Inverse folding.
Protein backbone atom coordinates (compact mmCIF):
# COMPACT_ATOMS: atom_id res chain seq x y z
CA UNK A 1 0.00 0.00 0.00
CA UNK A 2 1.43 3.36 -1.01
CA UNK A 3 -1.14 5.84 0.28
CA UNK A 4 -4.00 5.79 2.73
CA UNK A 5 -6.35 8.54 3.76
CA UNK A 6 -9.08 8.00 6.24
CA UNK A 7 -11.35 10.75 7.36
CA UNK A 8 -14.80 12.13 7.30
CA UNK A 9 -15.35 15.28 5.31
CA UNK A 10 -18.16 17.51 6.57
CA UNK A 11 -19.88 19.73 4.04
CA UNK A 12 -22.25 22.66 4.47
CA UNK A 13 -24.94 23.86 2.08
CA UNK A 14 -23.33 27.28 1.67
CA UNK A 15 -19.76 25.99 1.36
CA UNK A 16 -18.42 27.73 4.47
CA UNK A 17 -17.39 26.23 7.81
CA UNK A 18 -19.71 26.71 10.77
CA UNK A 19 -17.96 28.23 13.75
CA UNK A 20 -19.43 29.57 16.97
CA UNK A 21 -22.00 29.07 19.70
CA UNK A 22 -25.10 26.99 19.02
CA UNK A 23 -28.25 28.78 20.13
CA UNK A 24 -30.97 27.30 22.29
CA UNK A 25 -33.29 27.46 19.27
CA UNK A 26 -30.84 25.28 17.34
CA UNK A 27 -30.13 22.71 20.04
CA UNK A 28 -33.54 22.59 21.68
CA UNK A 29 -31.79 22.53 25.05
CA UNK A 30 -31.67 25.09 27.84
CA UNK A 31 -27.91 25.50 28.08
CA UNK A 32 -25.71 27.84 26.05
CA UNK A 33 -22.45 25.94 26.31
CA UNK A 34 -22.49 24.12 22.97
CA UNK A 35 -19.90 25.27 20.46
CA UNK A 36 -19.05 24.12 16.97
CA UNK A 37 -16.19 24.27 14.49
CA UNK A 38 -17.21 21.95 11.68
CA UNK A 39 -18.14 21.63 8.03
CA UNK A 40 -14.83 22.54 6.46
CA UNK A 41 -15.95 21.19 3.08
CA UNK A 42 -12.80 19.14 2.56
CA UNK A 43 -10.51 22.07 3.44
CA UNK A 44 -10.14 21.56 7.18
CA UNK A 45 -6.42 20.87 7.27
CA UNK A 46 -5.59 24.53 6.77
CA UNK A 47 -8.52 25.99 8.71
CA UNK A 48 -9.27 23.79 11.71
CA UNK A 49 -6.42 24.87 14.00
CA UNK A 50 -7.23 28.57 13.92
CA UNK A 51 -10.96 27.80 13.96
CA UNK A 52 -10.43 25.87 17.18
CA UNK A 53 -8.56 28.83 18.61
CA UNK A 54 -11.41 31.14 17.60
CA UNK A 55 -14.03 28.90 19.26
CA UNK A 56 -11.93 28.73 22.43
CA UNK A 57 -11.66 32.52 22.55
CA UNK A 58 -15.40 32.93 22.00
CA UNK A 59 -16.17 30.34 24.69
CA UNK A 60 -14.00 32.36 27.07
CA UNK A 61 -16.16 35.40 26.20
CA UNK A 62 -13.38 37.14 24.31
CA UNK A 63 -13.98 39.10 21.12
CA UNK A 64 -14.39 37.17 17.88
CA UNK A 65 -10.90 37.31 16.35
CA UNK A 66 -10.69 39.89 13.54
CA UNK A 67 -8.93 37.38 11.29
CA UNK A 68 -11.91 35.00 11.34
CA UNK A 69 -14.09 35.53 8.25
CA UNK A 70 -17.59 36.60 9.30
CA UNK A 71 -19.02 34.17 6.73
CA UNK A 72 -17.76 31.32 8.96
CA UNK A 73 -19.83 32.44 11.98
CA UNK A 74 -22.90 30.36 12.75
CA UNK A 75 -26.31 31.96 13.27
CA UNK A 76 -29.90 30.78 13.35
CA UNK A 77 -30.52 32.66 10.09
CA UNK A 78 -27.58 30.98 8.39
CA UNK A 79 -28.61 27.55 9.62
CA UNK A 80 -32.13 28.19 8.36
CA UNK A 81 -30.82 28.91 4.87
CA UNK A 82 -28.69 25.74 4.77
CA UNK A 83 -31.38 23.46 3.41
CA UNK A 84 -31.14 20.28 1.39
CA UNK A 85 -32.34 22.21 -1.67
CA UNK A 86 -29.62 24.84 -1.16
CA UNK A 87 -26.99 22.09 -0.88
CA UNK A 88 -28.26 20.41 -4.06
CA UNK A 89 -28.25 23.74 -5.91
CA UNK A 90 -24.66 24.34 -4.79
CA UNK A 91 -23.51 20.96 -6.03
CA UNK A 92 -25.30 21.36 -9.37
CA UNK A 93 -23.78 24.82 -9.84
CA UNK A 94 -20.27 23.34 -9.56
CA UNK A 95 -20.95 21.29 -12.68
CA UNK A 96 -23.07 23.73 -14.65
CA UNK A 97 -21.67 26.07 -17.25
CA UNK A 98 -23.86 29.11 -16.68
CA UNK A 99 -22.65 30.71 -19.91
CA UNK A 100 -24.43 27.97 -21.86
CA UNK A 101 -27.81 29.13 -20.47
CA UNK A 102 -29.13 25.57 -20.16
Amino acid sequence: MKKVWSGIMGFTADGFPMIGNLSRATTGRTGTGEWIAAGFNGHGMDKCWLSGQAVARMALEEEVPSWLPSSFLISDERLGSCTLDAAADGIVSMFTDESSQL
Summary: Helices lie at 24-27, 48-59, 76-81, 84-94. The first helix runs from residue 24 to 27. The chain is about 30% helix and 10% strand. Residues 18-94 form one domain.
